[in-house]
Design brief:
Strand order of the largest sheet of chain B: 1-2
Shape of chain A: globular
Oligomer: heterodimer
Order of helices and strands of chain A: HHHHEHEHHHHHHHH
CATH class of chain A: Mainly Alpha
Largest sheet of chain B: 2 strands, antiparallel
Strand content of chain A: under 5%
Number of helices of chain B: 13
Structural class of chain B: mainly alpha
Largest interface: A-B, 51 and 51 residues
Largest sheet of chain A: 2 strands, antiparallel
Number of domains of chain A: 1
Distance between the termini of chain B: 6 Å
Chain lengths: 306, 353
């Protein structure tokens, strides 16, 4: 195989995988606390729009990035209110959030379609970017990609090695026992929803700040749903999420390259690739372990005790 | 200090959930009014345009009924699946494949007489939609694969497949490059009722709605469905074949959505083209939940949400409000209805400590 083709493709895989990675990590935190948020797609697109608008208004991509995280948190809070306060069905609430989020982004972003905003550009890291093969694949990106190198270990450590992480997992595994142990389950679930929403918003921001620098409708294009599937593929582990996100980034990059190469394959069939891969990946992971790795109380609301 | 105490209600009253739905709709309209104001559209004027556009004339009402037909059929299917706690988000894709199946028959045998051609189109549409619904069901039954994501991904795939056909092999050579098939032969078109713009699909809805209602209410299988939906474990213990029910409801669900796809292609646009995908499959989910999965309420809710769509089209024409406004309204209504569920299922008491 020719390295001259493979290396840029893998570098593109890392880049296209990054927004999915942010969103997947966000959903892992949310689901670990026992809340299923199917509104990832809606939360992401609100992040994408917020980042774009703030970058356009202030000229500061960094500010835009943080704003997108906050917008993601606020959007996810709607899900939190419906499920944690009003005990609404988590599946349907997530779907509704996706419908609402995409609608809002199209509606509020209508005036911005086709405009461009300042964003991040790739910065080659000194020294490490010189390493053959690894350098050009991993260390010649924009700062938002580098940031994701640090987040998965941090989440792993936070969830698995700290006391609050243990409590959050307890809220997702056995809320009744956690309550009996004196934990405030609702607070940990709120943290899972809001923290997850923050990361999903950041993932959305990547699409307008680094990936495209412009605003069009439906920029997320199902990435939020792919993230939901990747959580299952990753068995709720941040490390495996990285692998899964880059796999999908790879297939998206490959599809774009094939389209650009003027192949005979119709573009509608090429566009199916990531979605078909999602189904395949999901089938393979459920075949191997099923849902046995899922938090035991995932998607189940805590009934008020008498 | 005040303390809020929430306890589960033993009985569920119909009027209470009606009140909740009404409050939810009003609340959603108020919130969306704020969004209109953000754009500089006076909210009351906007909502008036929306309602006049939806229900203000005979033509508008007819348009609502035409749009309610596919929503009703998809929603009926979605509700049957939801009843069993099978989360079928795939009505949109099953609808697409139904339209594709019907179109294949219409384009392959254009000269068959109507009484043979139309049933053949329906059968093919229901088969295509049903099989598309069966894939996630079998995966869930055999491997416990999450049906929410599979049905959703199959939506994307089905819509792209439809695109592939109308941009490629099925493209009408005389369409000046537009992605659409030939117009169907007159025998392949479901006609209109009298002098109205409403097609006979409305009668299909009446029949299918009744069949589903009788099935749920009066048959053993329908009872098993309800029992299994209430508690999977209890159902298994009682010897109800839960896994087979999952496949059954998904096939029914897909067949109904496929039927809707047939009607949309045959009666409404008389051909296949990408614009056939108007998101009815997602609206159907909102409708099913709004109607608490009850067939009769689904009919009302379909008409209501079809009205919202027609009204939003009017809003778009008159006040240049983006079409996405409809999605916002649907999302808001669904979220507020979900939240309002607290007041129907639980008793809330505020006490002084």
């Amino acid at each position: 195989m020719e390295l001259a083709i493979i290396i840029p493709l893998l570098a593109a895989a890392v880049q296209s995988g990054t927004p999915i990675l942010y969103a997947t990590l966000g959903e892992i935190i949310t689901e670990k606390s026992g809340v299923l948020n199917l509104g990832v797609e809606g939360v992401m697109i609100i992040g994408t729009l917020t980042a774009f608008v703030v970058a356009l208004a202030t000229g500061s991509p960094t500010l835009a990035f943080v704003a997108a995280g906050i917008a993601g948190t606020l959007t996810a809070a709607i899900h939190g209110m419906v499920c944690l306060w009003f005990k609404g069905n988590q599946v349907v609430s997530g779907l509704a959030l996706t419908i609402l989020g995409t609608g809002l982004a199209d509606y509020l972003g209508n005036a911005y379609v086709g405009r461009t905003a300042p964003g991040f550009t790739p910065i080659a890291l000194p020294l490490v970017s010189e390493i053959p093969i690894v350098g050009p694949i991993f260390f010649n990106h924009d700062p938002l990609v580098y940031l994701t190198y640090g987040i998965p270990p941090l989440i792993w450590y936070g969830l698995m090695r700290t006391r609050p992480g243990l409590c959050l997992r307890a809220a997702g595994e056995h809320p009744a026992a956690a309550t009996a142990a004196g934990l405030h389950v609702a607070a940990y679930r709120w943290f899972g929803v809001l923290g997850g929403g923050f990361l999903m918003g950041l993932g959305g921001a990547y699409l307008s700040l680094s990936y495209t620098h412009l605003w069009t409708n439906n920029l997320t294009g199902g990435r939020g749903w792919i993230a939901v599937a990747l959580v299952i593929f990753a068995f709720w582990r941040p490390g495996r999420a990285v692998f899964g996100a880059y796999l999908f980034g790879g297939i998206m990059a490959l599809q774009l390259r094939l389209q650009a190469s003027g192949t005979q394959i119709p573009s509608s069939l090429l566009l199916m690739l990531p979605y078909a891969l999602t189904v395949i990946v999901l089938v393979l992971s459920s075949w191997r372990r099923g849902m046995s790795e899922a938090p035991a109380a995932l998607g189940i609301n805590v009934e008020p005790a008498d | 200090m005040f303390r809020i105490r929430i306890t589960k209600r033993q009985e569920r009253r119909g009027w209470r959930s009606c009140l909740v739905v009404l409050t939810a709709i009003v609340l959603s309209l108020v919130l969306s009014g704020i969004l209109l104001a953000l754009r500089g559209t006076p909210p009351l004027v906007g909502l008036a345009v929306l309602f006049k556009g939806a229900f203000g004339s005979r033509f508008a009402i007819e348009d609502c009924l035409v749009k309610a037909i596919p929503i009703f059929l998809c929603s009926l299917g979605v509700a049957v699946a939801f009843r069993l706690q099978v989360w079928n988000i795939g009505a949109e894709g099953q609808f697409a494949l139904g339209a594709v199946g019907a179109t294949w028959v219409a384009l392959s045998f254009p000269d068959l007489p109507g009484p043979i051609l139309l049933p053949a189109m329906i059968a093919m549409a229901a088969l295509a939609g049903g099989l598309w619904g069966m894939i996630p069901a079998i995966l869930r039954q055999r491997l416990r694969t999450n049906e929410i994501i599979v049905t959703l991904m199959l939506n994307y795939i089905a819509i792209l497949f439809l695109d592939y056909l109308v941009y490629g092999v099925w493209k009408d050579p005389t369409s000046f490059g537009f992605p659409m098939t030939r117009e169907f032969s007159p025998q392949a078109v479901v006609g209109r009722i009298g002098s109205t713009s409403i097609n006979w699909g409305l009668a299909h809805c009446l029949v299918l709605g009744t069949v589903v209602w009788v099935f749920i209410r009066f048959t053993r299988l329908g009872f098993e469905l309800k029992a299994a939906g209430d508690s999977v474990r209890a159902a298994r213990y009682a010897g109800i074949p839960y896994d087979r029910l999952v496949v059954l409801v998904m096939v029914i669900s897909g067949a109904l959505a496929g039927w809707a796809g047939f009607l949309e292609a045959s009666a409404t646009i008389n051909r296949l083209q990408p614009s056939i995908m108007a998101g009815y499959g997602y609206t159907a989910i909102v409708v099913a939940w709004l109607a608490r999965l009850n067939p009769l309420s689904i009919a009302f809710a379909s008409f209501l949400l079809a009205g919202l769509r027609v009204g939003v089209e009017n809003l778009q024409l008159d006040l240049q409000v983006p079409a996405a406004f409809g999605g916002i309204l649907e999302g808001l209504i669904l979220l507020t209805v979900l939240g309002g569920g607290l007041f129907t299922s639980y008793r809330i008491a505020v006490r002084r400590n």
